[in-house]
UniProtKB/TrEMBL annotation:
One of its GO terms (molecular function) is DNA binding. PROSITE patterns: HTH_DEOR_1 (PS00894), HTH_DEOR_2 (PS51000). Gene3D superfamilies: Winged helix-like DNA-binding domain superfamily/Winged helix DNA-binding domain. Coiled coil: none annotated. This is DeoR/GlpR family DNA-binding transcription regulator. InterPro entries: Carb_Metab_HTH_regulators, DeoR-like_C, DeoR_HTH, NagB/RpiA_transferase-like, Tscrpt_reg_HTH_DeoR_CS, WH-like_DNA-bd_sf, WH_DNA-bd_sf. Signal peptide: none annotated. PANTHER family: AGA OPERON TRANSCRIPTIONAL REPRESSOR-RELATED, HTH-TYPE TRANSCRIPTIONAL REGULATOR SRLR-RELATED. Residues 3-58 form the HTH deoR-type domain.
Amino acid sequence: MIGAERRERLIARLDDSGVIRLEESAAELGVSSMTVRRDLEALELEGVVVRVRGGAVATVKARSFTERQGVDDVAKTEIARKALDLMPTTGSIAVDASSTSGHLLAQFKPGATTDLVVATNSAHNHARARALRGTRAILVGGELEPHTESFVGPVACAAAAMLNYDRFFTSAAAADPEGGTSETIIEEAQVKREFVRAARETVLLINSAKLGRRAMAAALSWSQISIVVTELDPRDARLDVLRDLVEIR
């Protein structure tokens, strides 16, 4: 089997299961694990996969807020519903530029807050925060990232670090037990790290479909995250890999 055919088979496996396992693929293709490793290196250079221990996962692509907003809407709505109990009514919070955090803000009822400051690096989420009575919305400015429609760069990082937050609510492009969370855009990961440093606690709002995956830019370690909220029942076996790392809701 020539290299191009092997790589097509590997991509087909990736499309089916979302992951390529090194030893399993070597046995299936009848080649050495070193051969599959070289194929994965080639696919990584093409931007098709990201290599992880024991194999590779699909590359996560950057999408605009508008594109992300309508994806996995049921899961995001359930995540936001479960996270509402974690939202304070006074003090200050930060929310990232994710559509999942946008769902959380959208589920607040008018008048639910009494004196809450909400800082975000998203114009979309800033508009949602402004619609909440009793809330002071702060937009962290900077350079507009065209793919994610978030504000990033040195100005955004400096502004994010100027306040102290009771909680930072963030999603992620991907998360895995070994590497923590990751993002498609390096600058987006940088702003999130500044929010985390300034926050007393960080809450990760993440669709379970993103677990076990990696994007290009490393963002947060599990030691920086206090609570994970997914759409799954906290007892779901798919969350077992995270139980020793973080509180799950």
